[in-house]
Amino acid sequence: MNSDDFYAFLRDPKLIELIEQNKTTDDLLDVIKLGEIQHSEVLAWCMNPNEGHSQGDAVIKDFLEAAYFEGVDPIYDNKKFFAKWTPGRIRTTSFGAAFVTREFAVKVEDGKKKGRLDLFLVDTQNKIFVTIENKAGAKLSAVQLEKYVAAVKQEVSSRPVFADYDQAFIVLDRDLKYYPDAHLNALSKRWTLLDYSWLRWSAERAGFQLARGKSAAQLLVAYCQKQSDWESPAEKRASELATDLALAHPSVVEEIRTIRTQSILKWTLKTLDGESGELTLFHSQYSEICKQLIGIQSIATIIDQLLRLPTSVSRGHIERGRTWFDAIPSAALKWMQPGDDARWPMYVSLYRDAKASRPDAPRFTLRLIWARGQFNSSVDEDALRRHFATAFPSLTKFAASDRRAVVIARLLSLSEAVQRTKQLLEETNSRINSYSDLLPS
Fold first, then answer.
1. Position 233 in a domain
2. How far is residue 324's CA from residue 366's CA, in Å, rounded to a whole number?
3. Which of 4, 147, 260, 387 has the most beta carbons within 10 angstroms of its beta carbon?
4. In 10 A of CB 375, how many CB atoms?
5. Within this chain, do residues 209 and 285 fall inside the same structural domain, yes or no?
6. What 3-state class would DSSP assign to 130?
7. pLDDT digits (tens, 9 = 90+) for 181-209
8. Residues 383, 287 share a domain
9. Domain check: are 112 and 144 in the same one?
10. Rounded Cα–Cα distance for residues 371 and 345 (Å)
């Protein structure tokens, strides 16, 4: 980086806009990181229909509907629960009398050890009792889940007051997408596994209420957005600005990367001379901006390189965030349902693995996403899925899931991510065309 590079960066109108964009946040969760206990407490508040978030029982309905659609071949209690509590019944039932409690401490390890499950959703009017294990950092274990079921059965379900209640067991895990298929397959089928993506619907609905002046919904919006990776229009604009800046000023961003860990204890008068010293001061004063630029640079670079490759993907067929992007194979566009709100039926997804990455060595996971029920009426989805399963055998698993994510590769470097994403787009396009050739004319 030379002075011309640095000063061109400082004069870029998009940098000025990004700085102002970052001043507009009133999101407390931007500065406070929640631990597992705090997650459960805020989630309990969100799901309480009598709290001041203006959502009533809507978050409970979002939660139960998501569990219905994500339940893959449920057994025992969950099978009976969701045979009765279908989406239609959930949406048309009032859960105004429901409450969420953390009061039950159960005995595990044959009664020798106390364990506290995170949340219990109880509704005495509709007679439902849902055990919720809310993971936030600790990895799921099948043994642990089985012990929790046994403990709940022995100490809670056996009580006469709950004898005729519909019972379900649900896991919430923010890191579910990082689990290999083998680990997911090994987990107890008694539990329905959910990540936090269902909270985006709660966030969007509360966002409409905010727009109408109901400021009490702000905390719920903030929490749901953070946990579901949902981006507000302001955040999306900030991502776009950061992407454009990272691509336009790569030498500056690389220099920011090298000084990111420099302590002020190492500052000397000489260190702060010239463009490097000025950039050090800029980094100290605009640390969040610099963090965004470093974080988004790798995703922006991958997208830029893909767009330069022949017959890879067009800009209009990409959706991106700070740490991810999705791209639809061009041949799949013909299978979308009509309407402006139609979702992509099949697409390629790449995201930066936060756990495996370092600022100087990002690592990526590449997935093929199958959105069940999003294909238009011209497609025999079951036949198409069988056709794709010859190349992607994991598609045969969790077939009832509303959104199936097949992991193609993990821990990819930046250059590997470009090439493997290109290959996957080409392969999916080829599979789509070969399937179309099999159809009667």
1. no
2. 10
3. 147
4. 19
5. no
6. strand
7. 777 777 777 888 888 888 777 777 766 65
8. no
9. yes
10. 5
pLDDT value at residue 348: 93
Signed CA dihedral, 42, 47, 51, 53: sign only:
positive
Task: Let me know: does 178 contact 195? Beta carbons within 8 Å.
Answer: no
Q: How many residues does the chain have?
A: 441
Q: How far apart are CA 97 and CA 95, in angstroms?
A: 5
Q: Which DSSP state fits 101?
A: E
Place of tokens 């800046």: 245
Return the H-helix or E-strand segment holding 307.
Answer: helix 287-308
293 in the same domain as 374: no
Q: pLDDT tens, 291-312?
A: 878 877 778 888 888 888 876 7
Which of 71-85, 100-114, 180-194, 402-416 has the lowest average pLDDT? 100-114
The pLDDT of residue 167: 92
Query: Is the dihedral angle over the CA atoms 267, 273, 279, 281 positive or is it negative?
Result: positive
**Tell me, what's the pLDDT at 201?**
73
Burial state string for 81-97 with b = 16 or more CB within 10 A and e = fewer than 16: bbeebeeeebeebebee
What DSSP assignment string belongs to 171-231? EEETTGGGS-HHHHHHS-TTSEEE-STTHHHHHHHHHHHHHTT-GGGHHHHHHHHHHHT--
Q: How far, in Å, CA of 63 to CA of 66, rounded? A: 5
- b/e 204-218 (16+ beta carbons within 10 angstroms → b): ebbbebeeeeeeebb
Name the domain count of the chain.
3
